[in-house]
Amino acid sequence: MSFSSLPGSFSSSSHPLVPYGWDADWEAEFAPYDSEGLLAGRVIRVDRGQCDVVTSGGVLRADTAFVTPHDPMRVVCTGDWVAVEPAGDPRYVRTYLPRRSAFVRSTSSKRSEGQILAANVDHAVVAVSLAVELDLGRVERFLALAWESGAQPVVVLTKADLVPDATTLSYLVQDVETAAPGVPVLSVSSSLGEGLDVLAAVLSGGTSVLLGQSGAGKSTLANALLGEDVMKVHATRDVDGKGRHTTTTRNLLALPGGGVLIDTPGLRGVGLWDAETGVNQVFSEIEALAAECRFHDCAHTSEPGCAVIAALDTGELPERRLDSYRKLLRENQRIVAKTDARLRAEIRRDWKRKGAEGKAAMEAKRGQWG
Questions:
Q1: Pairwise CA distance, residues 232 & 312, whole Å
Q2: Whole-angstrom distance, CA of residue 82 vs CA of residue 33
């Protein structure tokens, strides 16, 4: 039997899955499963051990029991490309293809686990509402996870029509650009349709995941991009701009102008998950300054020849940025230490060293007083 006549075979240029992101590389990855008679598909929704998969023959429901269910980092996720049984009741997902990228956060539990929000994403769109005061620290947190995922972050400032004037809007955009070096920052109004054409052009070249707090206007934005009311929308509270979680599952949808969008529920907590590289990317100007410090292990506190502190003193580096940088690095270190015994030991040694230094300093002072 020739490859082209097998049940799961296709031409990557004309196959129905192309609008969902299929390409020649995915075709090559799937070839071994194609020879087994399995069907290629992309997961568009996951719900309680089952998932909806779009295939060449349409959308089918499949069970995920064969894919390690007890490891939260290996479960099937929205955006995965999978090999599905072509028939059976129930059908099963046999495996998923190696992920090109994955957006991961730490879980809200006290266990050291990560939660995959979306897989095989090219753009991570962070939606930030202009209806409430900007929280730049939260924007930086989202961006750290976005850079770590391997996707290109994009910040979208929603509800721009609620900003009183163009000058104020310009200042708000500049504030976010300062907190997001190297990241496109777009302002949009879903209700007026302003800025949507630019955003749609950015998202047309791959898969994008839409992230943000509840009330950020994600569902309204998704509907505007899709050109129809697919996602349910609830009004936000006037007091704080927050809304209920109108999106309860992660849904993957093909955009009419090209590209794929994964909408996600509003995120109350956005914990880092082994995201040191992402944090360094968000604070690239601090990393550049640190390279000029006299000591390679400079802690940027009171060391002589510290370029970071010098930039802080001159006003080149805002104190808020440095505080946020330190906070995210400490948090990330705590998360990594939960699963890395060597790092835990290093942290304990550092605590002991600092304690000994503090004790020695106090004894020296006592000696001077005596």
A1: 46
A2: 10
Residue 158 tokens read as 């929603």
In the chain, the DSSP E strands lie at 39-47, 50-55, 58-63, 81-84, 93-96, 102-106, 114-119, 123-129, 152-158, 185-187, 207-211, 251-254, 260-263
User: What CATH fold (topology level) applies to the domain 276-369?
Assistant: Ribonucleotide Reductase Protein R1; domain 1 (1.10.40)
Q: What is the pLDDT of residues 188-205, one digit of tens each?
A: 999 999 999 999 999 998
What's the CATH fold of domain 102-263? Rossmann fold (3.40.50)
CA distance 263 to 247: 8
Report the half-sphere exposure of 309 (CA within 13 A, side-chain side).
12
Of 286, 210, 308, which Cα lies nearest the Cα of 250? 210
**Residue 298, CA atoms < 13 Å, CB-side half-sphere:** 21
For residue range 240-283, what is the model confidence (pLDDT) as tens digits? Answer: 444 444 445 789 999 999 999 999 876 666 667 677 888 999 99
Could you tell me the residue ranges of all domains in the chain?
Answer: 3-96, 102-263, 276-369
User: Amino acid identity of 222?
Assistant: A
Which CATH number does 3-96 carry?
Answer: 2.40.50.140
Confidence of residue 351 (pLDDT cuts 50, 70, 90): very low
What per-residue string of b and e applies to 83-93 under the rule 16 or more CB within 10 Å gives b? Answer: bbbeeeeebbb
